[in-house]
């Protein structure tokens, strides 16, 4: 997946870039959470030695994007469902009166545990470089609002 972005800052061999949103982004709003005007900023490997203010093309593998989506959405959902099922079984064993509330709370606890696991493994994800975007091309010298 390739996107246009503006280099906002540099740190070593990495650059922080603000992704230039297309008209398709206005309809989706998945990465902005529905907040208009907020640019999506990411760190990218600066292989082209792009400077602050330049318009660049960044690339991230589709496999990495799908993997990140799976990790952030599917695994927590599976954890919640597993927690609810285990909560219902545990409520029966412990003879708890409010089974649904108890199972919901156990499911919520499982979501928290899954996100804690993702947070703890964040260093591994950073080291794998699978989820790191790369600047592959400098498109223009300076960004000009039109």
From TrEMBL:
Establish whether keyword Cell cycle is in the entry.
no
Record field: transmembrane: 70-89, 101-120
Q: Which Pfam families match?
A: RseC_MucC
Q: Identify the keywords attached in UniProt to this record, alphabetized.
A: Membrane, Transmembrane, Transmembrane helix
Membrane recorded as keyword: yes
> What protein is this chain from?
Positive regulator of sigma E, RseC/MucC
